[in-house]
Amino acid sequence: VCAWKIADELLQQNLDLESCYFAAQTMRTKIQYVFHELPVESHASLRDSLMGHLSRVNEQTAPVIVTQLSLAMADLALQMATWKSPIVDLITSFGNSLPHVGVLLEVLTVLPEEV
């Protein structure tokens, strides 16, 4: 559980490309391979945290960070059984904001690759 928190904090601090890439890749890898280790009661906060990180993406955000966060979100959408409408929620969150349409498209692009 500590690695999840540290990765989240590194992304929030947004210090440099390397630490953000490491954190985003850590989140993605942990969701992909050890999501079952995270307590069920933490799933929604992880989802909300990832949504928050994606909502802070802007034109200065490196594409590799956007890709890793999008892959993490896609993996979470596939593994979080309690999240009943991930696609609708993503469209609602990112589809109405021109700066975030690219984020939405990236998540929707990588989603089929993660299945």
UniProtKB/TrEMBL annotation:
GO biological process: protein import into nucleus
Residue ranges annotated for the Exportin-1/Importin-beta-like domain, each copy included: 63-115
Pfam families from the UniProt entry: Xpo1
Entry-linked InterPro entries: ARM-like, ARM-type_fold, Exportin-1/Importin-b-like, Importin_beta-like_NTR
Domain of life: Eukaryota
UniProt-listed PANTHER family: TRANSPORTIN 3 AND IMPORTIN 13 (PTHR12363), TRANSPORTIN-3 (PTHR12363:SF42)
Identification of the protein by name: Transportin, putative
Organism encoding this protein: Ixodes scapularis
